[in-house]
User: Fold this.
Amino acid sequence: MNYSEIAKPKTKEMQVAPNLLGEGDLTSKTPWPEIERELGVDGRDSFNLAQLAIDRHCENGWGDKVALLWEGKDGGEEAYTFEQLRTLTNKFAHALAGLGVQKGDRVFIFAGRVPELYVSVFGTLKLGAIIGPLFSAFGPDPVRDRLLDSGAEVLITTPDLKARLSTILKDLPQLRHTILIEREVKAAELDQGDVRYEQAMAAAPSDPPDTTTSREDYSIMHYTSGTTGKPKGAVHVHNAAIQHYATGKWALDLHPDDIYWCTADPGWVTGTSYGMSAPWLNGVTQLIYESGFGASAWYSAIQKHRVTVWYTAPTAIRMLMKAGDEITQKYNLSSLRHICSVGEPLNPEAVLWGHRVFHQAIHDNWWQTETGAILIANYPFMAVRPGSMGKPIPGTTPGIIDEAGNEMPHDAEGDLAVRPGWPSMFRAYWNNEALYRSRFNNGWYITGDRARKDKDGYFWFVGRTDDVINTAGHLVGPFEVESAFMEHPAVAEAGVIGKPDPLAMEVVKAFVALKGNYEPTDNLRRELMRFIRSRLSAAVAPREIEFLPSLPKTRSGKIMRRLLKAKELGLPLGDTSTLEED
Ligand code: PRX
Assistant:
């Protein structure tokens, strides 16, 4: 079904003139020199993401401006100015250095959205160490895999989350210290190598650490899922600050007086690139809302803090739609002037719903962990075509290509690819050069998404080229879930697929074949659900488990998820010639 375009707004009538004013602003092939001048990094090889995002504003007279406005789960609020963040992050960098952490070491953080998390991330960056944020809903297994693979030496967490890891901490020989944030729960006792956050901070000096980082020094790593094997660590560099700043300005349309709210969890890339870096590089006050989703609670937060720019995700928007239009009228949401969404396809209905209840289009944009920042976006000045991801970020070149790496004509479906060289491009998969190289072909970075581009240059998402599941914006590697199943004594084989879902886009569904001496009972199904949930996380745990006598496999023994999915959807089974003969 075709949805009519949401007309271009009259920019002269907008509350605030957008940073990009028209199509002409999108076509510049070389916007980066000007952006570098604005950021003050032109001609410099050495700069540091944390200094640009925090210290720079103190040097430019914005030290007293609130950077972080925190609303805790219990409704309590705290505000931190750029100057306070400068001091705190300096101290944290010294505290880490005092533990022997050096440039390039991996420091991971496993905590909820508390102010200490933001201080830790930017303090780690100031020291030139690599920060690895972890989703706080993870169970022990994903945490162990990521700490092991990265060789992390320090873990920052809370006493209650540390308790969740009690079974795996002994498996991490490289982990030397655990820094405990004791905001809510105090540690009853300290294990060897444990450090109390508050004590370390109190003892640390507040002057800047004596480290310099270059553009190409590693800054952040995020693990992301693939079809096979364990998640891989996509590594980013300080240079990404340039694109975080630029896209914050162009796609999120950040202006100095904005109150900005990004709802993404800080354990995923949206939570760091746009829940930390982009707003602060733009000198904007950002709301950090500790609690999770709740329609009334979210609207009330927008009203209370007078949020002007809101960056959220399709699943959340669909949940708000489900909560109904009426509830939106109970709140004064008139402060909102720009709404953006990322992470999954945004249904045209959601864009139109936003237009009805918030009186403005919801602006979809596209990017991924590896791209580090937004690459395709709907901009405030332009007409929105509901269902489209928008147009390329100035200075970047996404394209639709065929298998040989040739660009395809408009409207043809192909691989979504990007010409390498955009500032925030990932620079490595940690310890996996071969996999990194395999993502490039004929002068393109291959994203793993299928898409098409219409004659006017709008990009449209079609699907993924692999078996990775996108549930509520979280990418789930089926292999990781299948491996967890295999650890249960009753399981002989497991195959995991994404099953379409009206709210979460996809939910995880598992097909399980049991060992001979186990019966496929409801009790066992519940036990398996609990088992996966406690090991991985509720977010990636299967919503459904179906027992089968055996699973379809290739002759080489690989489970054919494609067939499981086709069966689930009632589609033709396609080519089954490689099916195992029984
Ligand atoms: O498949 C695309 C989907 O999410 C993937 C990236 O996920 P991740 O690396 O976790 O990064 C999340 C932060 C952006 C993409 O390869 N995706 C992302 N944005 C969209 C999308 N699918 C459709 N429309 C989007 N706007």
